[in-house]
Amino acid sequence: MxxxxxxxxxxxxxxxxxxxxxxxxxxLPPELHPGTKEPSRLPPPLFPEAINDQxxxxxxxxxxxxxxxxxxxxxxxxxxxxxxxxxxxxxxPAKIFYKYEGxxxxxxxxxxxxxxxxxxxxKEGVKRLTTETxxxxxxxxxxMGCMFFGLECxxxxxxxxxxxxxxxxxxxxNWGAKIVPSPSPDxxxxxxxLAENPDHxxxxxxxxxxxxxxxxxxxxxxxxxxxxxNHVLLHQTIIGEETIKxxxxxxxxxxxxxxxxxGGSNFAGQFLPWMRDKLSGKKxxxxxxxxxxxxxxxxxxxxxxxxxxxxxxxxxxxxxHTLGHTFVPSPIHAGGLRYHGMAPIICHLHNLGWVEAQAExxxxxxxxxxxxxxxxxxxxxxxxxxxIKVGIDxxxxxxxxxxxxxxxxAHSGHGHFDLAAYDEYLSGRMQDFEYPEEKVKEALTHLPxxxxxx
Length: 454
Ligand SMILES: Cc1ncc(COP(=O)(O)O)c(C=O)c1O
Description:
Blueprint: E1 5-6, E2 16-18, H1 49-55, E3 61-63, H2 66-72, E4 80-82, H3 84-90, E5 95-100, H4 111-123, E6 128-133, H5 137-149, E7 152-158, H6 159-164, H7 166-174, E8 178-182, H8 188-196, H9 204-217, E9 221-223, H10 230-236, H11 238-249, E10 256-260, H12 265-279, E11 287-293, H13 298-301, E12 303-308, E13 317-322, H14 344-351, E14 356-360, H15 362-376, H16 382-401, E15 406-411, H17 419-426, H18 437-443
Parallel strand pairs: 5-15, 6-7, 6-9, 7-8, 10-11, 10-15, 11-14
Antiparallel strand pairs: 1-4, 2-3, 4-5, 12-13
Helix pairs in contact: 1-10, 2-4, 3-15, 4-5, 5-7, 10-12, 11-12, 15-16
Bound molecules: pyridoxal-5'-phosphate (PLP).
The site of pyridoxal-5'-phosphate has 20 residues, from helix 5, helix 12 and helix 16.
């Protein structure tokens, strides 16, 4: 009998996050202060000190506080599956594994960092957190994290998702959070954008600006970010650290790892721990494929340059692949992938040639999601369907070549609140969007001017 599930005992859950910063072959470019545009730590009111330290840490391993581990154990370790049934359906000699983060209470990988961020804020006396959410997964995760540590939580939810996903809002409200559609009348940024266009669908960049403005305006409040930043990727490495142990249980090692990237956190959380073998030369052939939507193709079509992390220019300026911080992506269903930039760590590794990137349309991704659901049973988040699409493509390549490669899919979450999107796909009403080249060109004219020599 071949095993299907690889289950780690709670006592074998990793106790440290892995920080790639000291292991990078070329140092990561600095972050720039949004006001002075000089290299700096994060502007002080933004995050608690412990998070600020982690953002630039030179330690390879950071211990996960016991209080965070205790909460992690309410759903971690998560399972690694061998997709025997999908392999059969595809009739491929490839071995397909997937690490499933959809069993967290919020339904995705996002609580891995939400719980940690809520903990550090609570420890430093913060009473209230603000944040943005696209698909609603991150807002749900932070609402839950705040609930565990007794913090208030206000979530600016991108308007298009707020309308598409009322159940996500209700879920967050259940955990005690306050939710508003973004752009909202609650901030100056939101009021300015609503005055220009009352029907603005919202973007992650705008919602981030609103959440930061709110945090700056209240002494007891800090801001919490769900992706992109180094410390978020750090907290997500628990995924890869667990998977390494589980792949050992399966007596397997991946040839290819695929994952979807919005800001890059779930996939970096999976692949960064594997990068140790690639960087050290032990596994030079290991392929790492980032999958993004064609509607917001920052890695494949964006410019590698300095840009703001948010629409209004309140967040730090990062060196990243960007479509321009004023770019408004088409309203695809993978709301968590509608972001103009990408995690600087991923961009840096991509720029140095260590990781690959591919962009996909939403219809073939939903098609892959349905194939996966009909083989494995799991209904996946639209974001995750991007990873599944390329995982299936790689398995089909093996069918052609006869190779028996090992493919590891980073499965970031379930799609139980995305059934309206599946309905659109199944009834043939779903559409793909052309890449808006002119809009990107225009947005790239608004890049910040940074000091020469950076
Ligand atoms: C299920 C799921 N996967 C992936 C993402 C993309 O985010 P990231 O690239 O930070 O993992 C999101 C974001 O909301 C998500 O909800």
